[in-house]
Specification:
Strand order of the largest sheet: 2-1-13-12-14-15-16-17-18
Structural class: alpha/beta
Number of domains: 3
Low-confidence stretches: none
Strand content: 15-25%
Bound molecules: 5'-O-[(R)-(benzoyloxy)(hydroxy)phosphoryl]adenosine
CATH topology of the largest domain: Rossmann fold
Helix content: 25-40%
CATH superfamily of the largest domain: ANL, N-terminal domain
Largest sheet: 9 strands, mixed
Radius of gyration: 23 Å
């Protein structure tokens, strides 16, 4: 495995292989197999473009050869920052075919996040769109290259630009290399090792900037295929990628990858907005999709007055944040389909409720792990498993749950138990039937709509503001987004306005979704008996002020 990643213990890995859980197939080889099976069937749809399985496979090959021709070598990391496009999917397959490793960045990330990712990953390549939502990604890429040491090549999806290699030129180089190679009888591209990293997902972040999650070919091929099976997907299914595909949920839970593994068709939406998505459901006969609760809320509202025909929908997966029973009860009737609750994380473990579970379980639990080989425990403060029904921390290990984040050994020592369970930082209990119920969080993370924000990261940015002597960041409840970001500050001198704090953070190159929504000024922080800042008390104070 790539140095800096933690492998599964050898005997555990052997067990997964012997049981056929890990198939020893790379993502690239899997696509070739799928292309052989489904040739002319449509794999991907975006606007008026339809890409067949055979076309996607040939495209990934051209890109693989093209990236190699542009110096991208096996094991090298390439940060990929693209909106929902077929290019994103083809590039991921293309890079992984030469054993290069895409790092999935959010399109909303800015200089702060990207310089961090490039430094942490040691990336040699960075792929951006020209502009997206009027933001100049070329300028961002130039800035990130100037501020870091390893970026050799900037790639752009769009027109040629100074200092960038255009994706069309990568493809052209690939076509030329393949023709020359075929003439010389060379093997196309040496395939990657299935037990090695296929790509890096990013953690929602709890303590600081995003951490990198190595996902191997073996683990991901297994996860997405199993997720598709649990959702009873078939070649007749049409999956709508409503969320950004760089999220694990939309990429492989089962997402786009699981859809391809069953021979179905994946439609890529530009935004989760129902006004964009409803016409896609109608036009393509979408049968399945995945959303976070704040997006479902928009869909439910729109479905009330919009007369779009959503009758093709059979299953809607909802996860990523907590929901009330009242809310979950509206989803099935409101959209005319079955609901599946999903508890998931980029780190691995996936729990799904099942449409044929008792109605109450579907409405109030996040179901069970998708794999019989998943191990999931609810433990108390001493690390011992708690009796069923008691609330404690959820810990997990299994064939698609990471054993360590990339290049953060000290953090890993705390984030995993000595026997390799990942400490999720989520508070949970199990029902007598064995279903998971998420009750809250230990980790200091705010879930604002679909976005995960690390309290510690925002605090660091606020502390950089002159006059701010102490900062604590908590969530405040919000009807629309679930939670919003509240900054509690102690200042020396005049209190800066919220707009001023936001402007300063924006100028530091922080993604907009992390900017605080409200600010409170206090003279001291309440402390817990152990002398830590009592964030529960701060959050409660903010919530009651908000109500008033
Ligand atoms: C998904 O992945 P991430 O990595 O963005 O966030 C993971 C965290 C979990 O640790 C938990 O705190 C929260 O998001 N979460 C939920 C939840 N599902 C995730 N909290 C309450 N209820 C749920 N159902 O969010 C993700 C990845 C794959 C599939 C679905 C969601």
């Amino acid at each position: 495995m790539l140095p800096g990643c933690t492998s599964w213990p050898a005997e555990v890995a052997r067990g997964y292989r012997e049981k056929g859980i890990w198939r020893g197939q790379t993502m690239g080889a899997m696509l070739a197999e799928l292309a052989g099976r489904h040739r002319d069937r449509t794999a991907l749809v975006h606007h008026d473009r339809r890409i067949s399985y055979a076309e996607l496979d040939a495209w990934a090959d051209r890109l693989a050869a093209g990236f190699a021709a542009h110096g991208v070598a096996r094991g090298e990391r390439v940060v990929v920052q693209l909106p929902n496009t077929p290019e994103f999917i083809a590039i991921v397959f293309g890079l992984s075919r030469i054993g290069a490793i895409p790092v999935f960045s959010l399109v909303a990330h800015r200089a702060t996040e990207l310089t961090h990712l490039v430094r942490l990953s040691g990336a040699t390549g960075y792929m951006v769109p020209e502009t997206y939502r009027r933001f100049d990604h070329l300028a961002l890429a130039r800035q990130v290259q100037a501020e870091t040491d390893t970026l050799r090549t900037l790639f752009v999806f769009g027109d040629r630009a100074d200092g960038f290699v255009a994706l069309s030129d990568v493809e052209a180089a690939g076509t030329a290399a393949r023709e020359a190679g075929t003439a010389a009888g060379e093997a196309l591209s040496p395939d990657a090792d299935p037990s090695d990293v296929a790509f890096f997902l990013l953690s929602g972040g709890t303590t600081a900037l995003p951490k990198m999650i190595p996902r191997t070919h073996d683990d991901y091929v297994y996860q997405s295929e199993l997720a598709a099976q649990v959702c009873q997907m078939s070649a007749e299914d049409v999956y709508l990628a409503v969320l950004p595909v760089e999220f694990n949920f939309a990429f492989g839970c089962p997402g786009v990858i699981g859809t391809l593994q069953t021979g179905g068709m994946a439609v890529l939406a530009d935004t989760p907005n129902p006004l964009d998505c409803f016409p896609l459901v109608e036009r393509h006969g979408v049968t399945m999709t995945a959303m976070v609760p704040s997006v479902v809320a928009l869909w439910l509202e729109a479905a009330e007055w919009n007369d779009a025909d959503l009758s093709s929908l059979r299953l809607v997966q909802v996860g990523g944040a907590r929901m009330t029973r009242e809310f979950t009860a509206r989803i099935g009737p409101g959209l005319g389909c079955s609901l599946q609750q999903v508890f998931g994380m980029a780190e691995g473990l996936l729990c799904f409720s099942h449409p044929d579970d008792p109605a109450d379980a579907v409405l109030t639990t996040q179901g069970r792990p998708i794999s019989p080989a998943d191990e999931m425990l609810v433990v108390g403060p001493d690390g011992d498993p708690l009796p069923s029904g008691e609330i404690g921390e959820l810990v997990a290990r299994g064939p698609y749950t990471l054993r360590g984040y990339y290049r953060v050994p000290e953090y890993n020592a705390r984030a995993f138990t000595p026997d390799g369970f990942f400490r999720t930082g989520d508070l949970a209990r199990l029902t007598p039937a064995g279903d998971l119920v998420i009750e809250g969080r230990i980790k200091e993370m705010i879930i604002r709509g679909g976005d995960k924000i690390s309290a510690g990261e925002v605090e660091d940015h606020l502390l950089a503001h002159p006059g701010v002597t102490a900062a604590a960041v908590t969530a405040v409840p919000d009807d629309l987004l679930g939670e919003r970001i509240c900054a509690h500050l102690i200042v020396d001198g005049p209190a800066p306005a919220l707009a001023e704090l936001k402007r300063a953070m924006h100028a530091r190159g922080v993604a907009d979704y992390k900017l605080p929504d409200t600010v409170r000024f206090v003279t001291e922080f309440p402390l817990t008996p152990l002398g830590k800042i009592d964030k529960l008390a701060l959050a409660a104070a903010a919530a009651s002020e908000r109500k008033a």
